[in-house]
Design a protein that fits this description.
mainly beta, eight-stranded antiparallel barrel, 3 helices
Length: 213
């Protein structure tokens, strides 16, 4: 075993107290894909795409290294009946994927990581330029809390997921993790590369409602 392999193994087995990244975001529940039609609605609540945000967090080496970034919506709306959200549809432009943990002046490093994330090794944005979430069920569990299910599509894989969200008069927020391997976002490089990149991706979403004219 060469020195590089020994170094990698030593890094992977460092004590858990050494600054690992831990998230409070719960993992989504995966359900059978739903073909349930959207409920009848009386209004469409549009989303302010410029003010809304999707931030992502991923880790390497079992949480020892944190990667952060952002990505943008290209289309988003919610369906409302009697002032209650009953459905919605969201389209993410995967080619807007950016990283925020590398300083802007490190041009080459930023360019290389973004290119790698967009490549066939990960999200393959040339072939799959969008990711989508179509809501299939929304339950109000508290005055400001929702339990949301929807068909989540990345690459050519669609799975129905359930997660929780908070809602107020102006925004809807959700924070959850999902296992990238469930959507075939699987880097098929060497054993070391596959081991260094952790499986969970965390999303922190804030949807800002567009003011009615």
């Amino acid at each position: 075993m060469n020195r590089l392999s020994l170094l990698i193994l030593a890094t992977l087995w460092l004590p858990t107290c050494l600054g690992r990244y831990h998230t409070e975001a719960p993992a989504v529940t995966i359900n059978p894909t739903s073909n349930k039609p959207l409920a009848n609605h009386t209004d469409t609540l549009n989303i302010n795409l410029l003010k809304s945000t999707i931030n992502w967090t991923a880790t390497e080496m079992k949480g020892l290294k944190k990667r952060t970034g952002k990505i943008s919506l290209s289309k988003a709306y919610l369906l409302v009946t009697k002032h209650r959200i009953v459905g919605g549809n969201f389209v993410v432009n995967m080619n807007t994927m950016d990283v925020t943990d590398i300083p802007a002046h490190e041009v080459a490093a930023r360019k290389n990581l973004i290119a790698h994330l967009r490549s066939a090794d990960f999200f393959h944005t040339d072939q799959y330029p969008t990711a989508t979430l179509m809501l299939t069920n929304v339950e109000k569990t508290a005055p400001d809390r929702l339990k949301i299910s929807g068909n989540f599509t990345i690459r050519d894989v669609t799975k129905n997921i359930t997660f929780t969200a908070s809602q107020n008069k102006h925004t809807l927020k959700a924070n959850f993790t999902f296992n990238r391997l469930d959507w075939k976002v699987a880097y098929t490089g060497s054993w070391a590369n596959k081991t260094l990149v952790d499986n969970d991706i965390e999303l922190a979403i804030e949807l800002v409602f567009k003011a009615k004219p």
